[in-house]
Amino acid sequence: MKESLYEWRMSQGFFDGSRSSVSANLPEGYEMTLELVRTIDGVLVCSGLHLEFPESLGTPSKTINSSFFQKLGLGELLVQAKKAYVEGTEVVTEVFEEMRVDELLGDWAQLGPAGFPDEKYAAIAWKYEKFLILGLENPVSELAEFIKSDKTTTSGRVLEARKRGLLTTPKKGSFGGKLTDKGKKLLGIEVISAKKSK
After folding, report:
1. How far apart are CA 103 and CA 120, in angstroms?
2. How far apart are CA 118 and CA 129, in angstroms?
3. For the chain, which terminus, N or C, has the lower number of CB atoms within 10 Å?
């Protein structure tokens, strides 16, 4: 896919498949807004287009006519708008994932280790992986501080997450790991199948 010629931004909506809008400023001064929605079959389609020259900029030097639309390249703009919608969906999804994880980890300090469900250990694995991605030198220490626990106890909980199949085991040493598909399902995160097409 080509790199976008314009800087698209999320302008309205939840980006969860429902009607949501992305906008971009065109070189001529116009602001274009495309409304996108997913069909019942999951296909992302355009359900609206709005093109406006901001009143604050005065009178446009290039007026809207058939030639203007021909040069605009609506097909490519739609492709880029869809890409922006998908990126918006990823941002919103991650925000809600983090909110859910933070909720699950909120009472670690008040509860003992016995009887913790897999869901809580999946949250531990999610947060641990997040600290790894951020490039923090000691993700266990960061995690311990986050859940208000000591480093030894937190390290044990990371190990327990591995034992329960919620965090992968690093190939070298004890540092690293990713949230497994099992862990993602427990947190309600969509798991994308990697099956080869026949």
Report:
1. 10
2. 16
3. C
Residue 54's identity, in one-letter code, is P
The Cα–Cα gap between 43 and 86 comes to 12
d(CA 43, CA 139): 39
For CATH 3.10.450, the residue range(s) in the chain are 9-88
pLDDT bracket for residue 110 (50, 70, 90): low
130 φ/ψ angles, rounded to the nearest 5 degrees: -60, -45
pTM more than 0.70: no
Average pLDDT of 152-156? 91
Q: What is the pLDDT of residues 74-91, one digit of tens each?
A: 889 999 999 998 888 878
What CATH number is given for 106-186 in this structure? Answer: 1.10.10.10
Note the CATH architecture for domain 9-88: Roll (3.10)
What pLDDT, on a 0 to 100 scale, did the predictor assign at position 1? 39
For tokens 């009472």, the residue is 107
Tokens 């008040």, located at residue = 110
> Comparing C-alpha atoms, which of 32, 24, 9, 26 is closest to residue 61?
26
Q: Measured between alpha carbons, how far is 43 from 48 in angstroms, rounded to an integer?
A: 15
Task: Give kind and range of the element (H or E) at residue 9.
Answer: strand 9-12
